[in-house]
Amino acid sequence: MEEIIKEIYQGVVKGNALLVKTKIETALQSGFDAELILSQGLIEAMREVGRLFENHEYFVPDMLISARAMQAGVILLQPSIVEQGVEPTGKVVLGTVKGDLHNIGKNLVKVMLEGNGFQVIDLGTDVSAEKFVDAIQEHQPDIVGLSALLTTTMSNIPSIIKAIEDAGQRSLVKVMIGGAPVTQSYAEEVRADGYAPNASQAVTLAKALLGK
Amino acid sequence: MRFYCLACEIFARPIYSAAANSPHAIDIHLLPLRMHEQPGLLNEEVLKEIDLLEGGNYDAILLGYGLCGNWLTTIKTGSIPLVLPKMHDCIAILLGSNEEYASHLADSPGTYWYSRDFIERGDSTSNFAPIGAAKNEIFGKTYESLCCQYGEDNAEYLLSVATAWERNYQRAVWLEPGVSGAEVQREISEVEAAKRKWKFEIVAAKDSILVSLLHGAWLDPGNHEFTIVPPESSVRLSFDNNFHRITPPNKAEN
Q1: Which of B47, B121, B122, B150 is deepest in the core (most CB within 10 A)?
Q2: CATH number given to A3-84
Q3: Tally of domains within chain B
Q4: Who's near A120: CB < 8 A, 6+ residues apart?
C-alpha cells in the first residue's frame, strides 16, 4: 500500500479527521484515484475499527471519532467519486420507530454504514410507518433499518413491517432491526430479515443481506 | 409468609414503605440504578442472587423490575418461585399503569422523568443522560479527560454527540410521591427542566404496583398484574401482552 494511503488509513483508525483531510487533499493533488483512496484508505480502515470494537479494544467514542474522520474524507472525495460513477455498497433507509426518540445507537449504525460505503437515508426518530413506506417509494433502498429502545415502542416494529407489506414493498427491501430490547428471537417472530446487537455487526449484517 | 425482594434503587423509598406495612416478613436488597444499561449484567446479578438464596427460608423472591429494555434474557428459578410485575419499566411502575405510561409516550414521547429516588441516589444532576450505549462512556468522562484522550477537536465532537439527545426532549415530569419530604428533589428537577428549557409538569406517582408486589396481591388466583415463575423453571421476555414466557421444568425452551 502506498505510504500516503497508509497515512489516511491510520488517520481514520486513530480518529484524526484533520490528518485524513490533509492527506486526502495531497493524495488527490498527486493524482491518486478517488476510488482507491476510498476503498483502501477509508473503508478498510473502518473495517479495522469494527474489528477493534468487536475485540473490545475500541469503544463507542473511538468508533464515533473514526467514523467522523472517515466522513471528513468522504466529503473531500465525493466530487471525484460522483465523476467516476463509483457505486455505493448499498442504500439503507434508517429510522427510530414511532414514539421513540432515542438516536445514539441509530446514529452510530448510520456512521458505521457510511464508513463502509453505504448510502444512508436517515429518517430520524419518532418515524411513522407511513414515513417508512414513503421513503421506500422515494429512495428505493436495498435495506430498511428499524431501531427501538423501549419495550413500549418495539411493538411498532411489526406494525411498520406490516405497513411495508401492505404497500407491496416487502419483497423490494430487506428489513433489519436493532435496539436495546430487540433480540434475534424477536426478529424471527416479527419476520425481519436480520437483527444486529451493535453498529459494527449492523454493517456485517447489511453486507450479508446484500450477498456481499 | 417470608419474601426476599430484589429491586432497583429507583424504588427505594416506596419499597421500604410497602415492606414496613406488609403483612409479610420481607428482606430487601437494592441494586444500583441503571444496571439495565449494561447488557447481561443485571440478568447475571439476578441469577447470582437466586443461587445465593437457594435453600433459604423464603416463600418467594419478588423482583422490583419491569422489562427495562431487555435485561431479562433468561432467568432460572431454583426451589423458590419468582414474582415479576408485568410492567414495561420503572416509569410504568411509578405511574402504576402501563396504559398511563403509553398515554404519556403517545402524547409526549420527548418526556424526561424525575423521581425522588432517581435524584437522591443518581449521579450529580449535571450528569443526567439518556439511555444508550454511548451514554456511560461519554458522560463518564469530563471534558478535560476527553481532551487528554482524544484531543480538543474530538472532545468537542463527542460532547456534541452526547448532548444532542436534549434537543429531542421538550417536557420534564416530576413524579410526586404520596408522602411529604421530596421538596428538595422536586426543586432540583424543576431547575434541571428550566436549564434545558423543557416544560415542567408534576404527575402523581403511585405505589400501587409495589404495594401489591410486597403485600402479596399476586397470591390471589385472579391476579393478572404479576408473573409467577414456579420453582425449577425458566423465564424470559415475551414479545406480547404476557410480558414473560415461562418454560416449565424438564421442557426445552423455544
Answers
A1: B150
A2: 1.10.1240.10
A3: 2
A4: A91, A92, A93, A94, A110, A113, A114
| Range name among A123-127, A201-205, B34-38, B195-199 with the lowest pLDDT average | B34-38
To the nearest whole number, what is the mean pLDDT of chain A?
A: 92
Instruction: Show residues of chain A in contact with B73, CB under 8 Å.
Output: 183
What pLDDT sits at residue B127? 41
Q: Which residue of B has its CA nearest to A197?
A: B39
B148 touches chain A (CB under 8 A): no
**Res A48: pLDDT:** 93
Residue B58, min C-alpha distance to chain A (Å): 31
Q: Which CATH superfamily is domain A91-209 in?
A: Cobalamin-binding domain (3.40.50.280)
- B43 in reach of chain A (CB within 8 A): no
Using a CB–CB cutoff of 8 Å, tell me whether B134 touches chain A: yes
At B246 the pLDDT is: 94
Interface residue of B87, B107, B239 to substitute, partner A, most A CBs within 10 Å: B239
Choose among B102, B137, B169: nearest Cβ to A59: B137
Residues B158 and B238 in one domain: no
**Minimal Cα–Cα distance from B91 to chain A, Å?**
11
> At how many degrees (to 10) do helices A17-29 and A60-84 cross?
20
Quote the pLDDT of residue B151.
Answer: 92
Torsion angle in degrees (nearest 10) through CA of A199, B89, B230, B252: -20
- Cell numbers found for residue B125: 444532576
Spatial contact of B84 and B235, defined as CB atoms under 8 Å apart: yes
Within chain A, all domains assigned CATH 1.10.1240.10 are found at 3-84
